[in-house]
Structure to design on (264 residues):
């Protein structure tokens, strides 16, 4: 075994997220994304094909999502290359989970450390429709007012059968933790492992079913849709898992301590 165990910096492709400006939203106040423009987003579905959470492909074998999306590996199917979530378009790739790794600090009552990695049974094939999400470096921050983009198939279970669920996206500014934690807002419930995003006037937000999906700032997935209070409420921005606090954990989980740098 090679004693020269070194820490590799895994350089993932920088990706720009483009989207068309159409209107209306499921993601609240957002737009329909251009087909297959957000290639690293995945849909987590029940084995019956019901979408329930989003995620991001960070390695051919691994997806990052929210810990509260854990419904048990045997009940889950991961779909990459999707656009209209319950219509077969020929670009989809399906994989079952091999293993779910919930963050050890995840607390379902406070939502702290709401992050989970899913190892797939078979790797996704990277192509025109499927790519890897760039992640932020450990400990890097976003600043108040920085504009980010959240995307998802967020659907309230109302629809049931026939509706077509097209990927939607909306841009949102980062809200400082101080403001998000104020007594008029989340009143101290925002931990250092969370970031908030939303307009002071509300109206644009992630919502139910967008959970686990990416909040992308400067081309990197800085947030995972985690929780909120209603959707699009002016007083309550959306709350996201701060991915940069978990970059080391992500790399250690995926690559272990025996990184073979030459491979990457
Ligand atoms: N927990 C919700 C879900 O399971 C996501 C909530 C996000 N809410 C918000 N207002 N940003 O999909």
């Amino acid at each position: 075994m090679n004693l020269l165990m070194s820490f590799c910096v895994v350089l993932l492709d920088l990706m720009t997220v483009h989207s068309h400006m159409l209107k209306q939203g499921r993601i609240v106040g957002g737009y329909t994304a251009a087909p297959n423009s957000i290639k690293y987003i995945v849909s987590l579905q029940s084995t019956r094909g019901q979408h329930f959470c989003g995620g991001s492909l960070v390695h051919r074998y691994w997806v990052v999502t929210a810990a509260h999306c854990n419904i048990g590996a045997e009940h889950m199917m991961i779909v990459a290359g999707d656009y209209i979530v319950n219509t077969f378009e020929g670009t989809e790739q399906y994989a079952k989970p091999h293993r779910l790794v919930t963050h050890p600090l995840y607390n379902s009552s406070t939502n702290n450390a709401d992050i989970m990695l899913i190892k797939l049974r078979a790797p996704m094939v990277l192509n025109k429709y499927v790519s890897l999400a760039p992640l932020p470096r450990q400990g890097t921050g976003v600043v108040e007012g920085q504009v980010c983009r959240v995307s998802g198939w967020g659907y309230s279970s109302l629809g049931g059968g026939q509706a077509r669920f097209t990927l939607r996206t909306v841009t949102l500014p980062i809200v400082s933790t101080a403001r998000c934690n104020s007594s008029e807002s989340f009143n101290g419930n925002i931990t250092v492992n969370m970031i908030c995003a939303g307009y002071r006037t509300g109206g644009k937000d992630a919502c139910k079913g967008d959970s686990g999906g990416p909040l992308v700032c400067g081309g990197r997935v800085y947030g995972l849709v985690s929780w909120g209070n209603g959707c699009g409420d002016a007083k309550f921005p959306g709350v996201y898992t701060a991915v940069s606090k978990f970059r080391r954990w992500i790399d250690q989980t995926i690559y272990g301590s025996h990184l073979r740098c030459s491979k990457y």
Remarks:
- Residues 1-25, 156-162 have pLDDT under 50 and may be disordered.
- Residues 205-211, 225, 227-228, 231, 238 surround arginine (CB under 6 Å).
